[in-house]
């Protein structure tokens, strides 16, 4: 009896080791997804100033980036069939590197359209990576561990998304006292050109990192996985064989709208948090916020030094500034990280749908209250929504594909395409802010999104 047990244990250990390196590589990709995506929350107000844009014009940052998810999702699937998952990942990383390098001529010319081109190319590359990496992680090892693997890469995604706006704020809105004094003394046109050049360092560093990562993935021996076809053999649920499209299931169609609005509201709140803070006219920050900003400023200044800067601590005596706002954006995404770490294990012990009802209700009330109140409290109510957002994807997605049988893969594709909500909702918020009453009115759109998500958690999820 001892011999078979030892052999089985050795085989299991060997299998775990064979998946460890590929899993570590995939985790680094998801960290990258979060970092690049959430940097847009800092980039949007930065470009608004550098390129002298309205809220509506600056909202096209999200359109250019997330529009790629909609336009590239299906072509990415076709490309992956030709290249395979490993080479597809390498190509995706190289496409992203090209997009990052586009920021050099964009900063030199200070032409907003060139910035948008760089963002669109980045978005196209990250779409290819997402289409490859998401299913790969789910089957990279025993089926019993799929949920834990998805949770792990989700945490890495949130961690990258928490760090990037914090470091981006240091690089784009921080700077040394000498640099700030020099910029302040310049004519407007020259100052804007100098500020535009600040973005080149982060994106050159990103391009180098992406190229190195592409080389690593090209050399890795990733296992060829054959389990992607398992879903197609799933049995057809009784009484549903006549449905030829996943969209014929009302709960899936409503779920596509739910994912569209969830991604849109999550991105929109993060992208407009700094601008929302500027409208509050906050002259004095609370002691808590000052301590948080100063502590994070000291902890992250070393990273800015890697890009040739020696930034001074963030000034908290002057009230709300873009640098302070970048810390709040980071806190917003940190709430999502905490919620993911704490919430996902809890979902296995409580009714996930009831948890969805709770977080949608809290988020709806928080945004509505943020619109009605003024000052710093309004900002922290928006930050609270990051915590609420954390479990929405892992609950809505499985609810939406429940009972689809062999149409599960098709339904999943529609849900992935719905990520384009990250382009549309911020765009609509920018339009409302510029042409229909200001940013406070625009924040009613996220409230309406959360109202729909609450409806989906109460009734829309039901399989019919």
From TrEMBL:
A single Pfam family it belongs to is MFS_1
**What PROSITE patterns does the entry give?**
MFS
Q: How does it sit in the membrane?
A: Multi-pass membrane protein
| Primary location recorded for the protein, binned into one broad class | membrane
Q: Which of UniProt's keywords are assigned here?
A: Cell membrane, Membrane, Transmembrane, Transmembrane helix
* Signal peptide (from-to): none
Which cell locations does it reside in?
Cell inner membrane
Record-annotated membrane-spanning stretches:
20-47, 59-79, 85-104, 111-132, 152-176, 197-220, 252-273, 285-303, 323-342, 354-373, 379-401, 413-432, 438-458
Cellular component, GO annotation? plasma membrane
Positions of the Major facilitator superfamily (MFS) profile domain: 20-464
**Alphabetized GO MF terms:** transmembrane transporter activity
Domain of life the protein comes from: Bacteria
Protein name as catalogued: Sugar MFS transporter
Q: What is the lineage of its organism?
A: Bacteria, Pseudomonadati, Bacteroidota, Cytophagia, Cytophagales
């Amino acid at each position: 009896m001892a011999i078979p047990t030892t052999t089985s244990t050795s085989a299991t250990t060997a299998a775990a080791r064979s998946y460890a390196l590929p899993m570590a590589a995939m985790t680094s990709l998801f960290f990258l997804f979060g970092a690049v995506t959430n940097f847009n929350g800092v980039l949007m107000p930065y470009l608004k100033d550098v390129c002298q844009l309205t809220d509506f014009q600056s909202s096209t940052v999200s359109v250019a980036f997330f529009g790629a998810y909609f336009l590239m999702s299906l072509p990415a699937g076709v490309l992956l069939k030709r290249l395979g998952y490993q080479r597809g990942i390498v190509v995706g990383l190289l496409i992203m590197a090209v997009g990052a390098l586009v920021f050099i001529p964009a900063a030199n010319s200070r032409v907003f359209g060139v910035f948008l081109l760089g963002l669109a190319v980045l978005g196209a590359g990250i779409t290819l990576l997402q289409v490859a990496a998401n299913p790969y992680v789910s089957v990279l090892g025993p089926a019993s561990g799929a949920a834990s693997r998805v949770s792990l890469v989700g945490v890495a995604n949130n961690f990258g998304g928490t760090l990037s706006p914090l470091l981006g704020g240091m690089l784009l809105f921080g700077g040394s006292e000498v640099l700030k004094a020099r910029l302040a003394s310049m004519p407007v046109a020259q100052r804007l050109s100098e500020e535009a050049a600040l973005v080149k360092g982060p994106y050159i560093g990103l391009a180098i990192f992406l190229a190195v990562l592409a080389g690593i993935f090209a050399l890795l021996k990733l296992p060829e996985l054959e389990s992607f076809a398992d879903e197609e053999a799933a049995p057809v649920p009784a009484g549903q064989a006549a449905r030829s499209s996943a969209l014929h299931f009302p709960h899936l169609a409503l779920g596509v709208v739910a994912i569209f609005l969830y991604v849109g509201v999550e991105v929109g709140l993060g992208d407009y948090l700094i601008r929302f803070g500027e409208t509050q006219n906050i002259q004095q920050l609370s002691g808590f916020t000052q301590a948080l900003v100063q502590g994070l400023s000291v902890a992250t200044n070393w990273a800015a030094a890697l890009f040739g800067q020696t930034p001074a601590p963030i000034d908290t005596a002057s009230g709300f500034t873009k640098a302070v706002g970048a810390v709040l954006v980071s806190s917003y995404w940190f709430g999502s990280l905490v919620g993911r770490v704490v919430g996902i294990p809890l979902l296995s012990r409580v009714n996930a749908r009831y948890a969805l009802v709770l977080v949608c209700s809290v988020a709806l009330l928080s945004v509505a209250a943020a619109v009605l109140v003024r000052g710093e409290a309004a900002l922290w109510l928006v930050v609270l929504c990051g915590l609420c957002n954390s479990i929405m994807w892992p609950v809505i997605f499985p609810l939406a594909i429940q009972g689809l049988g062999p149409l599960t893969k098709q339904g999943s594709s529609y849900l992935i395409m719905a990520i384009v909500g990250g382009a549309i909702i911020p765009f609509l918020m920018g339009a409302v802010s510029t042409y229909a009453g200001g940013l406070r009115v625009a924040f009613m759109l996220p409230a309406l999104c959360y109202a729909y998500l609450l409806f989906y958690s109460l009734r829309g999820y039901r399989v019919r």
